[in-house]
What we know:
The complex is a heterodimer. By secondary structure, chain A is α/β, with parallel strands linked by helices. Helix content of chain A is 30%, strand content 27%. Chain A starts with a strand and ends with a strand. Chain B has one domain (11-230). Chain B is 82% helix and 0% strand. Chain B has helices at 11-28, 30-51, 55-78, 83-88, 90-95, 101-130, 135-162, 170-196, 202-230.
Amino acid sequence: xxxxxxxxxxxxxxxxxxxxxxxxxxxxxxxxxxxxxxxxxxxxxxxxxxxxxxxxxxxxxxxxxxxxxxxxxxxxxxxxxxxxxxxxxxxxxxxxxxxxxxxxxxxxxxxxxxxxxxxxxxxxxxxxxxxxxxxxxxxxxxxxxxxxxxxxxxxxxxxxxxxxxxxxxxxxxxxxxxxxxxxxxxxxxxxxxxxxxxxxxxx
Amino acid sequence: xxxxxxxxxxxxxxxxxxxxxxxxxxxxxxxxxxxxxxxxxxxxxxxxxxxxxxxxxxxxxxxxxxxxxxxxxxxxxxxxxxxxxxxxxxxxxxxxxxxxxxxxxxxxxxxxxxxxxxxxxxxxxxxxxxxxxxxxxxxxxxxxxxxxxxxxxxxxxxxxxxxxxxxxxxxxxxxxxxxxxxxxxxxxxxxxxxxxxxxxxxxxxxxxxxxxxxxxxxxxxxxxxxxxxxxx
Lengths: 203, 232
């Protein structure tokens, strides 16, 4: 049986250092893939490689049993990317940013207040994002992730800049996503307390 | 619609969305947009002051000056094409977007042209008057600038994509682009000169048009490939 998302023999060399070699993993719906390691151990490189932003020295990544490099658009249509740099425009308001996202992919209702209420950003809808704190911007990028109706969440250090309540929120959101058959790939350097089936990759 | 998965927005939707977002961003920061336009206007108005008001000389040098100024103004504006996207992570989002990257790139280039290329075309008649250019030649000038700025925006996007992570400023980008932009400059300026001398100039327009179409069909792919490499 093949997993929904799997990889084998991944090798990545950056400059002179080999970040990882012959690495493999498998991920099925309802599971979390946790990439762990020290700073500089290659977590971000690995997650970027899985998303297709970094080319690997060797190895293959499969989505639905097919090589992702042969179905890049389909694969990207089913994942959402969340990273330290939010990818949101500071000069635009929250709604303007999310409306742009909504025209790129099918989305849940971006006008409905439920998601904003939950993330505690409903008061901030009309402000340009640059006026928001880093943590609040992080919450907006979480909103984008929630509104994108996709099975695979890819999160690079999702807890950065968030307060305790915010970190709890991320844990809750991920648990709910996994409980409804979603998948999550997460790179994190701190302990993650998520109640789910966790596949760990140590780097 | 009773479909299982929600409908994916079409290719055109992505192009329009990103072009609209960039225009909205430019609207909120008009300073960045007006810079190349001011540069163009300044060069074109200062030149006659420096060389003196002799009509003969101005008629002779007009097409060249206007075209060189337009080329440099476009080069100035290209540096920022992908810079802010690279800094705020939007570029990563573009790379993992369900929309094809060349289409998004084309959308950004379209916005760039509408913001910084097209205004040059619009104000060029005003500046051409300074050079005693007759009305019908002004028409030719506008047409060549229209096609030429399209070429330059498209070619420039390749250079901007290659240099996006480098923080080396405009110099390297200009060096990369100039060889490709040279035919545009030569064709543009010479076509206007021919028109001013009552010569046959149609070939120049056709050649520029062909160059624009070639750039339109090839540059987005080259830019997309360059973005993938420089954002690794």
